[in-house]
Amino acid sequence: MKKLAQSQKGKKLIFILLLLLTGYFFGYYKLIGEGLIGDHIWRQADGLSIAQNFYQHGMRFFEPEIHNQVADHGFSGKSAGEFPLWYYLQAVVWKLTGPTPFTFRLFSLILTFIGLFAFYRVLQQIFKNDWVAFILPLLLFTSPVYAIYGISFLTDVPAFSLSLIAWYYIYLYFTKRTQKRLWTAMILFGLAGLLKISSLIGFVFLLLVFVLELFGFKSLKNKFLFAKSQSEWLAFIIIPVVIASWYFYARWFNHVHQVNYFLTGIWTYFDLNPAEQKDYLGNIRDVMLYAFYSKSVLFLLLFGWIANFFLLGKMPRFAMLAALIVPVGVILYVILWSGAFRNHDYYFIPLLHLMPGIFIPFLLSFKRIDKQDNFLRPLKVLTLVLLGYNMFYCGSFVYMRHYGHRGEFIMAGPSESVFANKYIVKNHETHWKPFKAIDGFLTKAGVQPEHKVICPTDITINASLYLMNRNGWTGFQSWDNDSAIQQKIDLGAFWLIVHEEENAVLSAFQNFTEFPAGRHHNLLLFDLRPYRKT
Question: Maximum Cα–Cα distance for the chain, whole Å?
Answer without folding.
Answer: 84
